[in-house]
Amino acid sequence: MQETRCEVCTENISKYRCPRCAVRTCSLPCVKAHKNNNECNGLRDKTAYVTIKDFSEGNLLNDYRFLEEVDRKADNVARHIRRKHKPGTPHHLKFLMRMARQRQTTLSLLPYVFTKRKQNSTMFSTRDKEILWHIEWIFAQNNIKYYDKRVSENMVLRNILEKYIDPEMGDPVKKQRLKNYVSAGFKNIQIFMKVEKRSAKSVRYHRLNLQQSMKENLCGKYLVEYPTLYVILSDYCQEFPVQGEVQTETSGVSSSDSETDSSSSDEDSSSESDNSSGEIGRASCRERV
């Protein structure tokens, strides 16, 4: 067998062959010189093309090992993702829910896989000691949605809404898309928030006060991730039944019905007493005769 010389120094007999480019070398200095000169990393190209004629059992074994390595790395990535998003609520979110509870607002958070959870930017500012809310605005009559990120809970609801529909302070592009709201003005606009944990057949809403802050409006409310507020023109408010007002109306109907029933029963009893007295009078008259 003919001995080949080192392709780097061309003096000594080669002992090694580069797995990547098959260059023969004789020593460690020659190996390093080869890598520097040819910019070779010395690693075998696992995806290099091999013709059918040159394909051997060694190539088959290399492909099998390559597939095993790919499977192992994919499994490691999946394990890392599971560890990163492991079940349970992080500490800062627990603290956020506790701060909301102190304000008599029940805040419920969804698992991380939900889009609403990923969109939510609500946080508690330890410096200002206030909750910064993520707000979704739905202008129902125009079927348009806008989002506000990290709005102070101490801001008045009307001031937050000014940049959308205020004729002077509003954004020109947004005002153009919401012309009917701008022309209606704040006097003819009402804000509703959906009551959570109700069936689809009995949807109810909270009516919010434009002159109060977010903190005051959300007091005593139940939220999922962040408040979704419906901006409604006054002519369409009947399509959004308010929880307390609906109960009052139904109770009024029931009370009127009960009053009607009681009055009818009184009339029946009085008529019965009149009939009985009339019969007694007629009987006494017959006895006199």
The count of DSSP E runs of length 2 or more, i.e. the number of strands, is: 10
In round numbers, the mean pLDDT is 82
Distance between the terminal alpha carbons, to the nearest Å? 158 Å
Low-confidence residue ranges: 247-289
How would you characterize this protein structure?
It is a single chain. The chain has 289 residues and is of the alpha+beta class. Helices cover 44% and strands 17% of the residues. It contains 9 helices and 10 strands. It has helices spanning 28-38, 57-84, 91-102, 115-119, 157-165, 172-177, 179-184, 214-217, 243-288, and strands at 16-17, 24-25, 106-108, 123-125, 130-139, 144-152, 189-194, 205-208, 222-224, 228-233. The strands form 3 sheets. Strands 4, 5, 6, 7, 8 and 10 form a 6-stranded mixed β-sheet that branches. Strands 1-2 form a two-stranded antiparallel ribbon. Strands 3-9 form a two-stranded parallel sheet. A hairpin with a 4-residue loop joins strand 4 and strand 5. The radius of gyration is 40 Å and the shape is elongated. It starts with 15 loop residues before the first strand and ends with a helix. The model is unreliable at 247-289 (pLDDT under 50).
Topology:
Elements: E1 16-17, E2 24-25, H1 28-38, H2 57-84, H3 91-102, E3 106-108, H4 115-119, E4 123-125, E5 130-139, E6 144-152, H5 157-165, H6 172-177, H7 179-184, E7 189-194, E8 205-208, H8 214-217, E9 222-224, E10 228-233, H9 243-288
Parallel strand pairs: 3-9, 5-10
Antiparallel strand pairs: 1-2, 4-5, 5-6, 7-8, 7-10
